[in-house]
Design a protein that fits this description.
The structure is a homodimer. By secondary structure, chain A is an alpha/beta fold. Chain A contains 10 helices and 12 strands. In chain A, strand 2 and strand 3 form a beta hairpin. The radius of gyration of chain A is 20 Å and the shape is globular. Chains A, B: It catalyses: L-homoserine + acetyl-CoA = O-acetyl-L-homoserine + CoA.
């Protein structure tokens, strides 16, 4: 049986995006697989999830050999809608530059699966999901999850879909962390791996910025100890501040200078006030305001926490190479010159460990001034690199 | 008449620091000079301040020729207490490493003046000061001020003290901005100038981080549109988040890695929760909590805004060199290799402009991993540089 993807999500974006977004947590406009207490997910914290639902999108067609499946792993604020119209915002998916017919990740050639991550808010179990045992949203009752937990949940979905081996696992940022975790946990299921703008651990500075964001959310009285959904409210202002702080780290100083500089907003002289006077202020406020229309604040806490806890070497006796010993997976590591969140040095640490483990690895540093978010943008050198890597791997894998 | 300084502020720190801090706004434990409507301060915004008070500290002795006065300009969250015990926190002043008997800025040799900046909250007119015309705190009723306004207010104080020429103006970060502004506005009053870790303008990224902080303050419902003092409350949580975000930018990734790394807080394993699990989280929370005990939230808005507006070239026809044409001031510009808030490239832009203007300038980049805050720390190479620069200038100035 060939699985055919390209499912456009059902439902149109409504006027009140926040309401639509909240509905997605339980009833996403994507296919969903549900697991019950007979198939609990054991978590790294030692706790277990007796109920698990996973929402996903697919694009392209699984071949008869089931050998052409690529799993896309999304970043902190992404979701399963990689290259279809987003059911809440109505905008194109987050990786439409990269994924599609004839694109670097070619949906005419490969079968693409993208799941909403565990802890997310677009249909996979997360803090906004209704706990079947209480009938209320999990909120902070959901156990804290890790990148390892996310990957084991994805593996359960693939089992269900009958996909034993992935031709490739690909993703940027937190998605890249999942790629590395996949390669470490299930080396025999991963033919090739493409971690982009990622690292094998979260740095002290990255933890610091995440903590600022979490404190901004939790400082908002509307957060109500995490129980805001029960009161039909949400910490919108706090979450917007968290998003603004994080967004600065996704860009580079050079890109900000080029895009905004010190340009004022529709005027020649400053207003000498506290409204958005500079274009960069207005841009950031817009980023904050639109984000809260589509994202759950508790999800933000859980996913930043999962990233903070990520330290792959720590799980393998303090030596990163041990995570990849004997691996037959082909790796391509991609970094960006102007990324200061996951700078090249962190990506190179992964490359060094892969080399030390005797794994097959190529490494490309893309010259760009667009910072961490370059993995989402039109970067032709990145596309050429990935297209070439996948074509060569496809040949080795016998994919037509 | 020789002015002798070293005034220890009166009053001991009390249990409720926030109350003590608030009292400082009107009745500081420092000397104060007050100006009335007969001597209004004209502001860059076009508005005027009919009442102005300036709080200051002095250290050392003014010589008979009145030629050995050094003005210290403090940074965003500093104040006039450069090297005495702080009347609110009870801790040593912010520049005790640099300033004192026998130190690089030697109080045995020079007469040091440090004023609380206009817009501050330690006794110089700022939003927490009582407006004599209403009997209530200015709050957002205070006109927005600029670095130029700060400097003109300082000049009024010096006139009052009978100090015509400054042997040196020195300061780091926002203090360095004031130094550059002094040299541009009053070249004949500044014999030497020492801007440290500063730039001639605030970059887009710096404006972005400030805007995050302001939004954090204004998102706190206790901010109450800036009128919180009237309600005997304050936006403590929002200000703490703002401070946390800013504090990350004052350090370097390397310093954070060296000091905290991914070390957990007093335990071997993560708690899988949202308490401060990593040492860096606990450190940041502490920074946020202690800051709100001594600083006014509206002051934070005003001073960050003044920094954002700073663009010295803009005031001189778009060409920075024009700000320094014909200047006889001797400059020493100091930057730090790991400072990403005011990176060396911004400091060098000042040096280039000074060279283009034919000014006397030396430039030193200090090799350190401590980031922007290095100007406050024990950096022997910085001390040697500044000691040498001042000694040479003192010889030229005829100071014994």
């Amino acid at each position: 049986m060939a699985i055919v993807g390209d499912t456009e999500p059902t439902g149109a974006p409504a006027a009140d995006q926040a309401v639509v977004a909240l509905e997605q947590a339980d009833n996403p406009s994507s296919p969903v697989v549900r697991f019950g207490p007979d198939r609990p997910l054991l978590l790294d914290s030692g706790k277990r999830l007796n109920h698990l639902q996973i929402a996903y999108q697919t694009y392209g067609t699984l071949n008869e050999a089931r050998s052409n499946a690529i799993l896309l792993c999304h970043a902190l604020t992404g979701d399963q809608h990689a290259c279809n119209r987003h059911p809440v915002t109505g905008k194109p998916g987050w990786w439409t530059e990269m994924v599609g017919p004839g694109k670097a990740i070619d949906t005419d050639r490969y079968f693409i699966i993208c799941t909403n991550v565990l802890g997310g808010c677009m249909g996979t179990t997360g803090p906004a999901t209704t706990d079947p045992e209480t009938g209320e949203p999990y909120g902070l009752g959901l156990p804290v999850i890790t990148v390892g937990d996310m990957v084991r949940a994805q593996a359960m979905l693939l089992d269900q879909l009958g996909i034993e081996t992935l031709f490739c696992v690909a993703g940027g940022s937190m998605g890249g962390m999942q790629v590395l975790q996949w390669a470490a946990t299930y080396p025999e299921r991963v033919f090739s791996a493409l971690p982009i703008a990622a690292g094998a651990r979260h740095s002290s500075q990255n933890i610091a910025f995440h903590e600022v964001g979490r404190q901004a959310v939790m400082a908002d009285p509307e957060w109500r100890g995490g129980r805001y959904l029960l009161d039909d409210t949400s910490p919108r202002k706090g979450l917007a501040v968290a998003r603004m702080a994080a967004h600065v780290t996704y860009l580079s100083e050079q890109a900000l200078h080029r895009k905004f500089g010190r340009n004022l907003q529709d005027r020649d002289k400053p207003t000498f006030g506290f409204d958005a006077d500079f274009q960069i202020e207005s841009y950031l406020r817009h980023q904050g305001m639109t984000f809260v229309e589509r994202f759950d604040a508790n999800s933000y806490l859980y996913l930043t926490r999962a990233m903070d806890y990520f330290d792959l070497a720590e799980d393998y006796g303090g030596r990163l190479a041990n995570a990849f010993r004997g691996s037959k997976t082909r790796f391509c590591v991609v970094s960006f010159t102007s990324d200061w969140l996951f700078p090249t040095v962190e990506n190179k640490a992964v490359v060094r460990a892969l080399n030390a483990a005797g794994a097959s690895v190529s490494f490309v540093e893309i010259d760009t001034d667009r910072g961490h978010d370059a993995f989402l943008l039109n970067e032709p050198e990145m596309f050429d690199t990935i297209r070439g890597f996948l074509s060569s791997a496809a040949y080795a894998r016998g994919i037509a």
